[in-house]
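REQUEST
  id: r-88c1
  op: predict_structure
  target: Glycosyltransferase 61 catalytic domain-containing protein
  payload:
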Amino acid sequence: MSEVKILLHTATKFFNSRKMKEEPKRLIFGSTPIILLLILPLICVGVDFVWGNTTHFNRWTQYFSSSETDFSGMVNPTVEEPESLEFLLSRLVRGKDRRNLEATGFACDKAVHSVVCVANQPVRIDTSNMTVYVFSDGVVEQETVVRPYARQEDDLKVMSHLSDYEVMNPAANGSVHCFPGSVVGLKYHDNLALNSSDIPGGHSMREFRHFLREAYGLRFRHVSQIKKPRLMLLSRRNTRRFLNEDEMVTMMGELGFQVIVVARSKLVSNLNKFSQLINSCSVMVGAHGAGLTNELFLPSGAVMVQVEILGTEWPSNTYYGNTARPMGVHYLRYKIEPEESTLLKLYGRNHSVIADPGSLFRNGGYRAARTVFLDQQNVRINLARFRNTLVEALSLVTDSDF
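RESPONSE
  id: r-88c1
  status: 200
  body:
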């Protein structure tokens, strides 16, 4: 995993490029270009750029079209309101952190699962070693390390829609860049959700989905735009497999769905193409698992059907069920019976795995529960029961005004 290092430098080191070159290059950037989300200043408050209630996107892009500075930190004189940058950056931190930002020009919001550091003064970014240098008038230098955990296969579409700037790839551009401010880090809100109170402008998940539609050029805004009901079945090849998948597909077709079966493949790893495919579907069906996060790309009014396997009631609701409605997506839960799970034959009806799945979490913790419920379990769907869920899904998408 890559890291971004932030160094608070004294005046001598901040302005001495020779000494900067002598800094040991301990943290080499070896992950993905999308990590530039974390170090291109002026675009990193992108949520507010696109949807801000008081500042329109065009004004943001005009402001940031001439934001790179020289090594002395002087902003291009074409910027008419340089003080607005300081105000906008201050909205990203609160309380003590905001006071620190106002007093020192630098502050880090360190919360659960996230670290976000903001500088409203000139910074220098060395992309060769992923280090952000911030001026400090203190005697002792300080260092903060941010671990964003971006994926190597991620693309730049979202980044390119946050600013008029071309996104810089550190792997191809290992040089030093100067800006009048920066935001480094990712803010954790919740599981597949946005906390509006933590976002300048109070934006919602529906607005974020609108942004994704524009960024990925998704065709369908609402499920009513899809003429023939289309169903995507997320097929698994290792665990949590549908053992009677062919019979399920036949039944789906008989109900009137055009069925698309998607397994892990190059298509799934290509988010540009896969998001387009998901967006063209009225219904998405899958067993509990990370693949259900793709509900983000469904059109409004679509239906996500989660097959809730044994032992996954809490994570099914928390990660995917409760998050669907804020997106404008209908959620249907198909909770399997023990007879539909391969765990019944493996452990027997009277075993606690079947009789009291929660006991495994309580006594053995997450890892023990995962080993059984996620890694050992496959499903043979009761077609008669499941048909009722699909009929409800079909009714929702054909009469949807959600």
